[in-house]
């Protein structure tokens, strides 16, 4: 099997390593089958897509809607690299699944409106499939509504004509979309479990996702309901595109 690749942007080792472990676990992959590239640590390699089965993008601290002058040199570099990569991915309709930060990268590339209209605090929310979305292969076996972990300051408020809406939540109209046949993105985190989100809550306690005195409330919100279905999307992606 050709390996998959995970493009990551987390600078903190603990949540970065745990994110990789979660993609391995819920994708049913070994370390040899999932190559991780930490983009915050250095430039994106020049990929030959023919060498891979598919691409994952994890979450991270960057916000596409931040003013250019507030973005770091690393963020500007990573954004430029994703534009080049996605030119190739979208043109070839190459298997791609971007989670959280990944929805921003694909959204920007396709001309979506990304702003602070629909943020969601770190929590568990009900995600509902759009009409007809249940027939999508990546959503095979998913219930019409399922619980998922979220936590984001920005979101897509207007999808471009090139995108097909697949899922929404009460406070965020674009939770998942598809471009072409094989290029996907989710606002929620399909890789996360309870232990993983607890790690991230502690790791990013000072990143503005919640007030300093709201740590316990945030931890409780992440335990509000059991989350078991989103990881099926990762497994469906791997099973569909492994080659």
UniProtKB/TrEMBL annotation:
Pfam families: GATase
Statement: the UniProt record of this protein carries the keyword Repeat: no
Keyword set includes Ribonucleoprotein: no
Keyword annotations from UniProtKB, A to Z: Glutamine amidotransferase
Gene3D superfamilies: 3.40.50.880
Database matches in PROSITE patterns: GATASE_TYPE_1 (PS51273)
Domain Glutamine amidotransferase as annotated: residue spans: 49-192
Protein name in UniProt: Glutamine amidotransferase
Gene source species: Microbacterium deminutum
